[in-house]
User: What shape does this take?
Amino acid sequence: MKKMKKGKKKTGARLWYSAIILLLAYALSAGASYFFLKDKFAFESTFITEIEARQALHEHKKKLRKTGRLYKTRESIPLVKSGTMSRKDRMLVLAEDTIKKMVEENDVKLLDLYLDRNGVIYMDFSDELKKNYDMDIAQELTFLAALFNGIRSSVPGLTAMKILIEGREVDSLGGHIDISIPIGEEIAGII
Assistant: This one.
């Protein structure tokens, strides 16, 4: 009888070892097939894409309502109605013309323009502004003062301006004057 008990123990242990090996083989094959086949079974759901697009549009519209925006996007309602131009459009045209005159010689593009409720205007330029302008301290100060004074003459209530490059804040244009914070009256009387 003692021999039978030893045999049963050996077969029971073998069963556990083979069950563990089969379980490990299954887990490894499932993991490998997931990583190798996941691209073949991936699909784009138009429903999810549409929901994400609606959420992004909603956030964009909410952002527009919070800022006193001068530029209107293409999906916005046109401001010019029946041949008359609103005050906001006149401010837009004058501010845009002033800015473009200041930067047109160096192929700089004005990407966007915002005016917040505190009278700070945010100008978003293409990165050519920083790349193409090689200014010393006097030229940089003159440029910033002329830009502020030009915009202030066309936008009543302007208190300061903030320059962005490609939507990001920058410390300086030429390495001389700190523009990481909005600047305004402190440079207005320079030129």
User: Anything to note?
Assistant: The longest strand covers residues 110-115. Residues 2-41 form the longest helix (40 residues). Residues 73-83 have pLDDT under 50 and may be disordered. The helical segments are 2-41, 46-66, 87-103, 128-132, 137-154, 185-188.
